[in-house]
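Look at one such:
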Amino acid sequence: MLLPAGKSELVLFDINRHSAVTGNFLVSDPAPLTDRLLAATELPFTVTFITNESPGSNEISAKHKPARHAQVSSTIPLGFSWPRGMVSLSHVALPFPVDDPLYGQVAPADDRFIYLGNLAVMSERGLLRISPEWLLRTRYNPFFPYLEERLVNWFNCSQATSPGCQP
């Protein structure tokens, strides 16, 4: 099934380009794929790219490219910053806010509950049943309020009869 032209949007989250890790330890840079998407004129959907405002900043902005356009039409600062030490989001992190009691940034005060968010477990290799790679994965989205606002606007516009509604 194809997405309806002009009514869909792809939101991409870049890596943290200000992180010292990206220059020294990155396996491959997603920039060539992103550059192709932002330059493609045949895409029937809007692309919004969430990235650092500049390579020397942890602040992020949204670059917006309408469907079937060759260039970014606007860049909007979002008022969020990459958290210290975070290189990228994982797909698991996208739907979870910073304050989520299971996957959030800070463990709940009551330690009777399972907490998997910003878990830092140190042990001898091979001792734990879970993979060390699992412990490195980001499980919350520091930019969740942006996604939440976009989804609420989209829902409200889908229910509105006003032709001028912009999600």
In short: Strands lie at 9-13, 46-52, 59-65, 74-81.
